[in-house]
Design a protein that fits this description.
The chain has four helices and 23 strands. By secondary structure, the protein is mainly beta.
């Protein structure tokens, strides 16, 4: 099983009693919950995984005692899933589904160091309600309400996106949950003119961050392709086009773009962002280049370095470059961009040019262009 990582992260609030807000007039004891386990074996395993995470926290990290002066660890002897059944299915990323399984469980404690730590059921087990704080659809802490195990499916084996709690499962709650995970794509995008212009300004073309390659069909005999946005940037690339592939954008990219695309040429791979949420229907699609990997010897940086040059040649025109393992890195201050000269036996064998979005690449992304 593989636990997924989604847009904005899955922030699970698995804190025990004493960590969340106070519960008004909690009962002294509660009846043993009744339910039905109606789920596939894989879903049951994910539910048990999430429960085991809570048990590990209780036994290892502990929880605040009633006076909140110290952390108290709790020995858990057993756990039991009392209820696990599907209540709702929601559309999700990559044409997948987010399934909400109602969940109820209880834990059997060993000897409790303090009887006031938990509200117990009639058989002296710790029920999941009243005792443990989980986030609601927006991440706000709740100690009471129905628990939901979040399971994502997109044709592959199901994965867990954690546990959430709802006082009432409404359409609004479900929509908020989808938005928390960045669905539908662009849900968090600020489409104000100022924001759109700021993004366009960020990706403005800059000759320093481009490769120049020979193309006799053009008046000046060459063509430049580089980081940022330039309409029809691939029109004059002289190398054989080998194909392309794309995947849904994730993390920071998904806040502004829907798709990450790789276009493969002989000795040159270009990574672009597409599906800009600020596009209109009047102009060309805004699709900036984020990463270029090059092994073509006649493809030069703005300072004239190409594959096949020596380390000394790089250091002469890029005196600011520093070593990171077998890579000479040009990463000036004040930008997220960098150029990575991959060196073997004193010779440049590949040049990568990249925009790290929230920091600079100092290690290559592992893209190895075909051919050349």
């Amino acid at each position: 099983m593989k636990k997924i990582g989604l847009l904005l992260g899955t922030f699970l609030l698995l804190f025990a009693a004493g960590c969340g807000g106070p519960v008004e007039e909690p009962p002294d004891s509660v009846p043993v919950s009744e339910g039905v386990v109606d789920a596939t074996e894989e879903v049951v395993q994910w539910a048990q995984y999430e429960i085991d995470q809570l048990v590990r926290m209780l036994e290892t990290n502990g929880l605040n005692g009633p006076d909140e002066t110290e952390l108290i660890t709790v020995d858990i002897l057993d756990s039991q899933i009392l209820d696990l059944h599907l209540e709702r299915e929601l559309p999700f990323h990559q044409e997948g589904t987010l399934k909400l399984y109602a969940l109820d469980f209880r834990l059997q404690p060993g000897e409790l160091p303090d009887e006031a730590l938990f509200i117990l059921d009639e058989e002296d087990w710790i029920p999941s309600d009243y005792n443990f704080v989980y986030g609601d659809a927006n991440g706000a802490e709740l100690k009471q309400g129905q628990l939901y195990l979040l399971i994502t499916e997109n044709g592959a084996e199901p994965s867990s996106a954690g546990i959430r709690r709802a006082e009432v499962l409404t359409d609004e709650w479900a929509t908020d949950l989808q938005a928390y995970f960045g669905y539908p794509p662009g849900v968090h995008f600020d489409n104000s003119p100022a924001t759109i212009q700021a993004i366009r300004d960020y990706w403005k073309w800059d000759e320093e961050w481009c490769f120049t390659m020979p193309n006799e069909e053009w008046a000046d005999g060459d063509w430049s392709t580089g980081l940022g946005y330039a309409h029809e940037w691939g029109l004059g690339i002289p190398y054989e086009f080998l194909g392309w592939e794309e995947e849904p954008a994730q993390d920071l990219v998904a806040l502004s773009f829907a798709i990450v695309q790789r276009r493969y040429y002989e000795g040159l791979t270009v990574v672009t962002f597409d599906g800009f949420y600020g596009d209109d229907q009047l102009g060309p699609n805004f699709s900036p280049i984020q990463y270029i990997a090059c092994t073509q010897p006649d493809c030069k940086t703005s300072r004239g370095v190409s594959v096949g040059d020596t380390v000394e040649a790089v250091q002469t025109v890029y005196p600011e470059a520093f070593w990171n393992d077998q890579v000479l890195v040009y990463a000036p201050e004040g930008t997220n961009r960098s150029i990575l000269f991959i060196v073997k036996d004193g010779t440049v064998v590949q040049i990568d040019m990249a925009d790290g979005l929230d920091g600079q690449y100092t290690t290559p992304a592992g893209i190895i262009p075909t051919g050349a």
